[in-house]
């Protein structure tokens, strides 16, 4: 009986975590970087690792605002989940790919990989670590 309950909660967590990525893509595609970054935990402890390491949600937002300063540079975003698994009851790991479709003037198309670690909070799942390359 416990295995069945655990399997159901893991499946529900997977759907809730996928909803975070759907929320991010929708915010990005309407040009709303603040809403995109709302999916990160509001903490100075979160990390974003790309070409550089950034700490804290405010710094992650500043990085996105500087890098994607226009709708043309943002383009259209979609995600593909490669692997999704629970890391205990309150954390989740996602391995995936991103696809950014942009005009040549916006920098052209881009694609890459990402690893996210999410933490379940009282209200929702929040990203606590993002490694995007």
List the helices and strands and how they pair.
Layout: H1 2-29, H2 33-37, E1 47-49, E2 53-55, H3 57-67, H4 71-74, E3 76-86, E4 91-101, E5 110-120, E6 125-132
Parallel strand pairs: 1-6
Antiparallel strand pairs: 1-2, 3-4, 4-5, 5-6
Structure description:
The protein has 133 residues and is an alpha+beta fold. It has a single domain, classed as Roll (Nuclear Transport Factor 2, Chain: A), CATH 3.10.450. Helices cover 36% and strands 35% of the residues. It is built from four helices and six strands; from the N terminus they run H-H-E-E-H-H-E-E-E-E. It has helices at residues 2-29, 33-37, 57-67, 71-74; strands spanning 47-49, 53-55, 76-86, 91-101, 110-120, 125-132. It has a six-stranded mixed β-sheet. Strand 1 (47-49) and strand 2 (53-55) form a beta hairpin. It is globular and about 45 Å long.
Overall number of strands: 6
Rounded average pLDDT: 92
Strand content: 35-45%
Count of the separate structural domains: 1
Biggest β-sheet, characterized? 6 strands, mixed
Structural class: alpha+beta
CATH class category label: Alpha Beta
Q: What separation lies between the terminal Cα atoms?
A: 41 Å
């Amino acid at each position: 009986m416990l295995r069945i309950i655990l399997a159901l909660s893991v499946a529900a967590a997977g759907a809730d975590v996928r909803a975070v990525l759907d929320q991010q893509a929708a915010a990005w595609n309407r040009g709303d970087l603040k809403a995109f970054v709302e999916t990160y935990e509001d903490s100075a402890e979160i990390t974003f690792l790309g070409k550089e390491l950034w700490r804290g949600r405010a710094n992650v937002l500043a990085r996105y605002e500087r890098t994607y300063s226009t709708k043309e540079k943002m383009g259209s975003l979609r995600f593909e989940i490669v692997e999704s698994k629970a890391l205990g009851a309150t954390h989740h790991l996602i391995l995936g790919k991103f696809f950014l479709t942009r005009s040549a003037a916006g920098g052209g198309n881009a694609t890459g990989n990402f690893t996210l670690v999410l933490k379940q909070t009282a209200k929702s799942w929040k990203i606590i670590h993002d490694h995007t390359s």
